[in-house]
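--- STAGE predict ---
source: upstream dedup step, 1 unique chain passed
mode: sequence only
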Amino acid sequence: MADIHPLQQAGVFTITTGAPGAQTLLAVLTVPQNSSSVSGHGTLTQATNPPLHANNAFSGVVHALGLGKAQQVYSLTGSAVPPLLGAPHVTQLLIVLDGIWGTSGKATYTYVIGSSFHTVTDVPVHVQWLLQN
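--- STAGE serialize ---
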């Protein structure tokens, strides 16, 4: 069961290794007050030829795990923006933060280009929290 969070939270999630030419998934996600739901938008980019640029809308849930070391888990599904058939986009995004409302962690995501699905695992996540009220 998802946890209910008493404060509204909004953050910028930067998911990348930082290596030259690496993919970068940048997402702005919001957890409304007294909710376990998450929504937001993001872009997946990579400086390749042809370049990768996928706009996404995300929705899902957030859970707090308190057994052992505290963690916060975001489980999201993505869709293309605009919703065009065959548009590249992230289909699934799983983020595990080190601590409740932590500023770092790991992510795994799956994206599709045409009919080819690609999964990227254990990518570092850095979060800048924008709103906590």
